[in-house]
Amino acid sequence: MTLSQRQIRPLEDVILTEDKKKTVVWIIDSEQWPRATIRAELMERGFDVIGFATTKHAVAAYKHQLYAKPQIIILELFGLDADEDDISSLGRIGVPIIVLGGAVELNREIVKNSEWAATIQRPFTIGKVSDMVEELVE
Questions:
Q1: Which residues sit opposite 121 in a β-bridge?
Q2: Chain-centre distance of CA 39, in angstroms?
Q3: What does the CA dihedral 116, 121, 122, 124 come to, rounded to 10 degrees?
Q4: Quick one: fold of 19-137?
Q5: Rounded to the nearest 5 degrees, what angle is found at the Cα of 21, between the Cα atoms of 88 and 92?
Q6: What is the phi-psi region of residue 46: left when phi exceeds 0, alpha when psi lies from -120 to 50, beta otherwise?
Q7: Domain range summary for the chain, segments of one domain joined by +
Q8: Which of 57, 59, 72, 122 has the CA that lies 20 to 30 A from 49?
């Protein structure tokens, strides 16, 4: 899947301020519905949220400045086809990353050997993820 013009918002449309209502959050999750529900909850809480199905799309969007730089990234590892380079590339963006996953995903070497703002293990609620985002913003 490629990014279409319809999916791309100009940077001028996103005004970045200290206010959490303008905090940009990126969600990377290979599954549409979990990504959409977390996105919807965060939007209800006033965040500007952009979703990606792969780490490659997120890194490309950052590299080509297709969206405003995120202040927080949520990375769901379950079902994500990401290698060490992909995960390392996300880390180089230089923002807090919340990692979501089950025991298997969270025990991968790259995950265990990296620093994360937070790690949330399954089972978790959408509220718990959203609360963590709010906590990191404050």
A1: 101
A2: 10
A3: -80
A4: Rossmann fold (3.40.50)
A5: 10
A6: left
A7: 19-137
A8: 122
Q: What does the radius of gyration of the chain's CA atoms come to, in whole angstroms? A: 14
Written as one letter, the residue type at 68 is: A
84 membership: H or E segment, kind and range: helix 84-91
Between the CA atoms of 132, 134, 137 and 138, what dihedral angle is there, to the nearest 10 degrees?
-110
**C-alpha–C-alpha distance, residues 15 and 81, integer Å:** 32
Write the pLDDT tens digit of every residue in 19-38: 544 899 999 999 999 999 99
Q: Give the three-state DSSP class for 26.
A: strand
DSSP for 89-134, please give it: HHHTT-S-EEEEE-HHHHTSHHHHTS--SEEEESS--HHHHHHHHH
Residue 128 CB-half CA count within 13 A: 11
Query: What distances in angstroms separate CA 133 from CA 80, 118, 136, one per listed residue?
Result: 21, 9, 5
Q: What is the pLDDT of residues 84-98, one digit of tens each?
A: 888 889 999 999 999
Three-state SS for 37? Answer: helix
- What is d(CA 121, CA 46) in angstroms, rounded to the nearest whole number? 25
Q: H-helix or E-strand containing 135? A: helix 126-137
